[in-house]
Design goal:
This protein is α+β, with helices and mostly antiparallel strands. It is about 20% helix and about 30% strand.
């Protein structure tokens, strides 16, 4: 058994795709427009060396309210391979205004920081 893909809703599909390309070197797939659900648009992205792709999805019916905690998936964690890579990405995201939580060692021993996609979706980056 394996995870086929992970899907993330976003209000701005192109900004999200550009974020993943710029910060993680993701390959961005072609845009898909659903005939069954008019207005639904998605793009698959693949991270270098990752087996599981992600699907970025948008639709006009997404709420305009600020993101709120809710039942369901909260974030995705991406392992960058080293503490230095976490520090470098965190510094880069801080300059861009995308750093939510500075690098730290958690109580369970993980070295991580939290950054945000342009729409605020959190991404945990780990060593």
């Amino acid at each position: 058994m394996k995870v086929a893909h992970v899907a993330l809703w976003t209000r701005d599909l192109e900004a999200a795709a550009n974020f993943w390309r710029e910060y993680f070197g993701a390959a961005i797939g072609q845009e898909y427009r659903s005939a069954r659900r008019p207005g639904f648009i998605s793009r698959f992205i693949s991270l270098p060396g990752a087996e599981t792709p992600m699907e970025l999805m948008t639709a006009p019916w997404l709420e305009d309210a600020a993101r709120a905690d809710r039942v369901g998936w909260d974030h995705i964690a991406i392992s960058l391979g080293s503490a230095q890579a976490v520090n470098d990405m965190a510094a880069r995201c801080q300059r861009a205004g995308l750093l939510l939580s500075a690098p730290r060692t958690t109580g369970d021993g993980f070295y991580e920081a939290v950054i945000a996609m342009p729409d605020g979706t959190p991404i945990e980056i780990t060593s």
